[in-house]
Amino acid sequence: MSALEYSHKAGIVHRDIKPANVMFCEDSNTVKVMDFGIARAMADSSATMTQTQAVVGTAQYLSPEQARGETVDARSDLYSAACLLYEMLTGRPPFIGDSPVSVAYQHVREIPEPASTFNPDVSPALDSVLAKALQKNRADRFQDAAAFRRALRAARNGVAVPDLPAGEAPTDPNVTVPMPDRTVQATAYSLTGAKFLDDSPGGRLRTPQDATLGDDRALAAQPAPVYEPSEADELPLGLPHERERTPRQKSRRRTWIATLVIFTLLVLAGGGLWLYNMMNQPPPAVTKIQVPSVAALSESEALQLLYRAKLNPQLNRIPHDIIAKGSAIGTVPDAGTLMEPESKVTLNISDGPSSVKIPDNLPGRTEAAARDVLRQAGLVGAPTTTMANSSSVPAGIVITTKPAPGQTVAVGSTVELVVSTGKVAMPELRGLPKAEAEAALKNLGLAMQVREVENSEVEPER
Question: What CATH number does residue 386 fall under?
């Protein structure tokens, strides 16, 4: 590719690239392109590739435009070089036929099989390079040898030639690419095609005024445009200029890449360190809550206060001799203790005193009233009522209790009520003096009526 690039920049098209014209120098490990016998200057390439109705070049490496007898340019050599590369990879040229004519026809009409079909070691990237280099229309190929060489280097790294956008699909291979009109006469160079190189080692065409006698006289008779490489070393035929990067550019590119890689590694290392610290730092301290005071509050009020403080109260009912039943005694832990949110706190609720004193005001009450007083005091009246005679207590009134009023008993104890029948037992009065009998009856709340009767057994006044 470097040899073709140099030749094309000098304005020379080889026109016969094939294995026989490429030599490998083993001692210097270089490749040489030889036999410029049918080469033409690009300025003179308006002369077609047919000479006396015969095709010039080797059929298996002809470009489609050579096979059609059209004008050639640098891209024709690149097509032939692609055929040579194809054969190096597969061991056979892209097209094989019984005759040169059939092979030339395939160059114009047929699409070659991918090289990987014959050699599985050929990568898809290299297949894409060959596909572009073997396009039928030269406008769809690589436009210069430098572009071809860069594509091969990219394919070595697995980078394929990008597909053309939808609006830039390959043109019909049978459509002739229009070329600028040229008026150069090539009659004088129809035999060798290289006579213009005489006395022009720099690759310039001699002007008609400098032409010598002989075949050059025909060229002087008809002045023609002359190819002159520009100072900027532009490619002929208006092809896009592509050059390799200079060592300085490559060095700067490597420097920028190294800087970017180092910067990326530093960012990743910093991010990893930050993430490690975030994952391993101790959790933030939890804000603790002070247990509120609930003493003397009702059960519902104490529960609401603890819930609002984001604590989880657990009820515990215990007896208490002072605090009324249903009122809060306190909490465990005590009020003022710092706790974490949703911690469990025991709420002690008074279940009343553990022992109770039998009320003193039970005697003198009716049985029903006495039972109500016992229930309010946390005691239970016995199911059965004890009836007793009483001379001083009316019938149906409580005389006393068992245990007696004023005694202390356990909460829930049973208390027996003693209720008056309203009657008394008649005492034995016989043989008693009248005064004593009257006194005994009076003590029982009874009145005495005296009636005297005769009795031989009892003394008088008794």
Answer: 3.30.10.20
| CA-closest candidate to residue 13, choices 99, 69, 76 | 76
Q: In this structure, what CATH number is given to the domain that contains residue 70?
A: 1.10.510.10
> Structurally, how many domains does the chain consist of?
4
pLDDT tens by residue, 104-136: 999 999 999 999 999 999 999 999 999 999 999
Q: List b or e across 232-258, with b for residues whose CB sees 16 or more CB atoms inside 10 angstroms.
A: eeebbbebeebeeeeeeeeeeeeeeee
Residue 147 in this model has a pLDDT that exceeds 70: yes
49 and 159 assigned to the same domain? yes
Digit-coded pLDDT (tens) for 207-240: 444 434 344 433 333 443 333 444 444 444 344 4
Say yes or no: 132 and 232 in one domain.
yes
CB 402 within 8 Å of CB 418: yes
Q: Does residue 334 have an active-site annotation?
A: no
DSSP, residue by residue, 283-330? PPPPPPEEPPP-TT-BHHHHHHHHHHTT-EEEEEEE--SSSPTTBEEE
Residues 116 and 66 in one domain: yes
**Confidence at residue 320, expressed as pLDDT on a 0 to 100 scale:** 87
Domain that holds residue 293: 289-350
Task: Please answer whether residues 440 and 427 qualify as being in contact, where contact means their C-beta atoms are separated by less than 8 angstroms.
Answer: yes
Among 16, 44, 140, 216, the one annotated catalytic: 16
